[in-house]
Design brief:
75 residues, single chain, 3-stranded antiparallel β-sheet, 3 strands
Length: 75
């Protein structure tokens, strides 16, 4: 399920989570968060032993919360 969001300040629309987000986290786990602009989550994933497994399970919550705090609204 793709999650789209709109930035409430200028109306820009963006796909914040695609259908394959768990696969991308599994393959590129710390770099996925760096790409999304979540540097602290990327560092946490890099230095945590079981970071990849936990990040795969909670990726949807982590990414959506990050974007919603920055002012994005789900469509």
């Amino acid at each position: 399920m793709t999650i789209r969001a709109t930035w409430k300040f200028n109306g820009e629309t963006k796909v914040i989570l695609g259908n394959w987000h768990r696969l991308w986290v599994f393959v590129f786990w710390p770099f996925y968060y760096f790409y999304k602009g979540m540097f602290l989550w990327g560092l946490l994933a890099l230095f945590t032993i079981n970071g990849c497994g936990l990040m795969i399970l909670y990726n949807r919550t982590i990414v959506t919360r990050h974007y919603f705090k920055k002012g994005w609204v789900q469509e």
